[in-house]
Specification:
The protein is α/β, with parallel strands linked by helices. The chain is 47% helix and 14% strand. It is built from 14 helices and 10 strands. The protein has an 8-stranded mixed β-sheet, with helices on both faces. It has a two-stranded antiparallel sheet with strand order 6-7. Helix 4 links the parallel strand 4 and strand 5 (119-122). Helix 11 (275-285) crosses helix 12 (292-300). The longest helix has 23 residues, at 201-223. It is globular. The model has no long low-confidence stretch (mean pLDDT 93).
C-alpha cells in the first residue's frame, strides 16, 4: 500500500485588508481539498485595539479582523499568530501579502527558518530599486533571501468586494514550473474568484506594481473635477508607459499579459475604486496643502498607500538610466507626490 502523502500546510504572512481576504479565500479551499491541511496560519502584526484587546486574540475569538476587515467571517480554520517564525515554521505554502515597504525586513527575519522545499506566492505590489538603478521585484527578493521558488498573484482585486464574494479575476504569474502554478490556482480559485496562470512572472508583477502610479494620476484628475474623458486619457497614457517601462526592464515581458486581469482590468479597477485613487483625489482637493502621508492616515485609517513609494522607486530607476524623457507621466506623478509640482500639472500633456 502506497504511503499517504503528507498534507500541505499553508501560512499567510500579513493580516491587513487584502491579507485577511486572502486568508479567507485559501481557508475556504483548504477544508475542501484533501491535499491541504485544514488550518491556515496568518501572521498578525500585533496591535492593541481601543477595547484593550490584542488584534490576534480578537481574530481567533471572533474569526473576524475587526480592524481591517470588519463584518467578514474569515473561517474558524484561520489561526492568527503574532509570532512570525512560528507562523511559517512548518508551512509548505507561504502567501506573502504585506505592504511592500515591510517585505525586505520580513524576509531577513525568515532567512534560514522556512521549511526546505516550501513554495511562496507574492500578492505584494512593489519593487526595490538598488543604488545602481537595477530593479529587484518582490518575488525575486523572496527567492533570493529565502532560497525558495516564488510565483505572483495580481489582478483587479479590490479586497472589500472579494470579501463580499462578488465576482473577481486574478492572474498567477510563474516562471518555468507550470505544475506549481496550477497548485497555487487550486488553493485560490473559487466560484467568485477566478484564477488564470501566465508564464510571465515579471510582466504580471510589474502590472500590479505600476498601476498604482497610474491610479494616483487618475485620482488627481478626480480631485480636479476634470471628468471621465480626462481620466481616460490619463489611464491610456499611464498604460502605455507601464508597457514600455516593463519591456525595457525585462524584454521577456509579453504584450498579452497586459490584457489579463493583472493588466488592464486591474488598472481600471484601481483607477476607479482603489486606495491610491482615493488619497490622490483628497490631495488634489486640498490643493496639495496636506502631504500624502498626512492624508493616508486620515483617509485609509491604518491601511498603507503603495503608489507614492512606487512612484519614487520608478523615478529612481528612470533617473539612474537616463530614461526620464521617455516617461514624462511617471516623472510628473512622482514630482506631484513630492510637491515639486502642483496637482494640476497632471493635466499638462505636452
Amino acid at each position: 500500500m502506497a504511503p499517504l502523502m503528507e498534507k500541505l500546510k499553508v501560512a499567510v504572512i500579513g493580516s491587513g485588508n487584502w491579507g485577511s481576504v486572502a486568508a479567507k479565500i485559501v481557508a475556504s479551499n483548504t477544508i475542501k481539498q484533501n491535499i491541504f491541511h485544514d488550518e491556515v496560519k496568518m501572521w498578525v502584526y500585533e496591535e492593541t485595539l481601543p477595547t484593550g484587546e490584542k488584534l490576534s486574540e480578537t481574530i481567533n475569538k471572533n474569526h473576524e479582523n475587526r480592524k481591517y476587515l470588519p463584518g467578514t467571517y474569515l473561517g474558524a480554520n484561520v489561526i492568527a499568530d503574532p509570532d512570525l517564525e512560528n507562523t511559517v515554521k512548518d508551512a509548505d505554502k507561504l502567501v506573502f501579502v504585506t505592504p511592500h515597504s515591510f517585505i525586505k525586513g520580513i524576509c531577513k527575519r525568515l532567512a534560514g527558518k522556512v521549511k526546505p522545499g516550501a513554495q511562496a506566492i507574492s500578492l505584494i505590489k512593489g519593487m526595490e530599486v538598488k543604488k545602481d538603478g537595477s530593479c529587484c521585484m518582490i518575488s525575486k527578493m523572496i527567492t533570493d533571501t529565502l532560497g525558495i521558488g516564488c510565483c505572483v498573484l495580481m489582478g483587479a482585486n479590490i479586497a472589500n468586494e472579494i470579501a463580499e464574494e462578488k465576482l473577481s479575476e486574478a492572474t498567477i504569474g510563474y516562471k518555468e514550473n507550470k505544475e506549481i502554478a496550477y497548485r497555487w490556482a487550486k488553493l485560490f480559485a473559487t466560484p467568485y474568484f477566478l484564477v488564470s496562470i501566465v508564464e510571465d512572472i515579471e510582466g504580471v508583477e510589474l502590472c500590479g506594481t505600476l498601476k498604482n502610479v497610474v491610479a494616483i494620476g487618475a485620482g488627481l484628475v478626480d480631485g480636479l473635477d476634470m471628468g471621465n474623458n480626462t481620466k481616460a486619457a490619463v489611464m491610456r497614457i499611464g498604460l502605455k508607459e507601464m508597457c514600455d517601462f516593463s519591456k525595457l526592464l525585462f524584454p521577456s515581458v509579453k504584450d498579452t499579459t497586459f490584457f489579463e486581469s493583472c493588466g488592464v482590468a486591474d488598472l481600471i479597477a484601481t483607477c476607479f475604486g482603489g486606495r491610491n485613487r482615493r488619497v490622490a483625489e483628497a490631495f488634489a482637493r486640498c490643493g496639495g496643502k496636506r502631504s500624502f502621508e498626512q492624508l493616508e492616515e486620515g483617509v485609509l485609517q491604518g491601511q498603507k498607500l503603495q503608489g507614492v513609494g512606487t512612484a519614487r522607486e520608478v523615478f529612481e530607476a528612470l533617473s539612474e538610466r537616463g530614461w526620464q524623457d521617455q516617461f514624462p507621466f511617471f516623472v510628473k506623478v512622482h514630482k506631484i507626490c513630492t510637491r515639486e509640482l502642483p496637482p494640476c500639472a497632471i493635466l499638462d500633456f505636452d
